[in-house]
């Protein structure tokens, strides 16, 4: 990566626009046109709220990801500049590298390090990319948690991502997870404040219920969204899927129903069934439960989430053997038994199964996460449209 930046900085100096310290380079529009074969649709590798992402190759031979704003995007100059400024002051192995940008000829283009393995989402569902096995999924969760922990602690106020989802977690070399897409990010609250009052933006299905209802944004809002990502990782399906039957549309609500009906094993992605012991599943579900707590004070910090995930990964590597599931579970514990030992958010004691179900309901059965709630016709869509900016 150092060699890459040296090449790009050298090119920038020859064009008379040397970057200051780690600030991204300013690319002429024609350079990015050439790198992407005039933004050839065949080179599109991703589509988002801001615009299409193209795979490009610079003259020096370096592959890059080029994100070009589309005309219809609701995001504008403010989000564009926010991402440039944000990434210019952040450097961490678990955050995507912004190489440069272009803002000439009314264009808004961002140029990133090319991530060969695409998004975490693409390795879970909805694409022909190879599916991740369970330890690879755990590694990705740990990497993403490290990136978010760095964001939250990188300055006095910290930074809130505000759009954490599997599509915004990229996988690089050796499947190292990196947080991406900082257009909606905001600085955290002042030291004497507990939250930031701001318009609700993000992706339905991932939004913190307190943020949605009160406009109060905190780092715990990212923790909640990350909890939904953890469910995607475990279940191998989207947070919201309108193509499914009504009772399965919302991922968290569906998981709650499965737990209530002693069908915990059915929530696990079929591609990884048999590779997770009931004990590991219990640990992972406990982490999810805490992240999805309705009240933000009951959610852990990202430091706590990271610690728990690292312990889960360590436990898995220390317990798994070629014999498979039974080798890790010495007492032949069943998924049903594991579901009876979930932990209430904010407490460290074992719960009965019935109380665990109530905790799941409290964490998952929230209106903001249900795209088709029980309502009078016409109420909900207007509220979504007026208050939530999707990406």
TrEMBL record:
Cell location: Membrane
Mode of membrane association: Single-pass type I membrane protein
Top-rank lineage group of the source organism: Eukaryota
Entry annotated with the keyword Lipoprotein: no
Stretches of the chain forming a coiled coil according to its record: none
Keyword Transport (UniProt): no
Keyword tags: ATP-binding, Glycoprotein, Kinase, Membrane, Nucleotide-binding, Serine/threonine-protein kinase, Signal, Transferase, Transmembrane, Transmembrane helix
GO molecular function, one term: ATP binding
CDD domains attached to this UniProt entry: STKc_IRAK
GO cellular component, one term: plasmodesma
All residue ranges annotated as the Protein kinase domain in the record: 39-316
UniProt xrefs under SUPFAM superfamilies: Protein kinase-like (PK-like)
UniProt similarity note: Belongs to the protein kinase superfamily.
Protein name: Protein kinase domain-containing protein
